[in-house]
Amino acid sequence: MDNESDRFFFRVISADDQEVRLDVFLSTRSNALSRSSAQRLIKSGAVRVNGCCSKPGYRLKAGDKVILLNQPTSAQIPEPESVDFGIIHEDPSLIVVNKPAGLVVHPAPGHFAGTLVHGLLQHCGVLSGIGGELRPGIVHRLDKDTSGLMVVAKSDSAHAFLAEQFKSGSVKKQYIAIVHGRVKGNEGQIDPPIARHPVRRKQMSVAFAGGRQALTKWEKLEEFQSGFSLLSVSIKTGRTHQIRVHLSHIGHPVAGDPVYGYGRNWWKRHPLYKKGILPLIDRQMLHARRLGFIHPKHNRLFEFEAPLPGDMEGLMRVLKYPNLHARTNKKLDIGRKLFMLS
User: CA 341, CA 316: separation in Å to the nearest integer?
Assistant: First the structure.
């Protein structure tokens, strides 16, 4: 049987995934795998179901244990490296970080250096091994261009304890999003299932047949006359790109989202851009602001908060006071670095 450190992917199948093909399951649960890639891995023997090799068309059953063996090259195994990120809290069991936008969480094709994992290894030295050699300590993830809070496990026991909370939906996760359009109402929820896009395999989409359950709740914090809204968003499930897909589905995509939102040509046609005060946004305006979970050692709720990054603060000022910036002729340089208006 494979060693714990050789595992790249491990799942115990729930009732929701019964009868799903093995190749479909792998491609919809891993950002790095297309269905054809999953089929090749299964046929090569790199995927085990209940300890045995299987076939791409195998229909999963509740309780099946699916393991994808990781065989990284020595050049891909992360080594300690200096990487910039914020530290909100640290103790012997875990570390809570404030991930900046633009930082990839763990090594993946095209990103085998400069990830959060490389920086954590430099800072901590030791992380849990449950995630395998490429993802040590990683209990959950944020998209590359989403900023905000993440908890990372230092030990296997802490990792398992935290992972169970994420799986059960008991972790408190609150995001701040600047979205297109003036959202009607003060609050609501979005619950269509989400699955891998049938054609664009790196994207997700709403799928009423065959998708995984997803629930996103939102509350409107502010509405801007320039055609944007500020939302507080909480999620019980953690599907890939869930918030971005759900908000786009209701017609209010996250501002700056290059996949599910509006492109650069849209921004250039906006009246505020033509006046020279609305910048081109180069990432989705989505920030994981609050995170709460039961601590594995203290057995009580720990809650953390990360302030909005400079690019989101700056965009909000432009949207809230467009006339002020028009009079002063100040065009903001919205980038990934923290900035202040003069």
Answer: 12
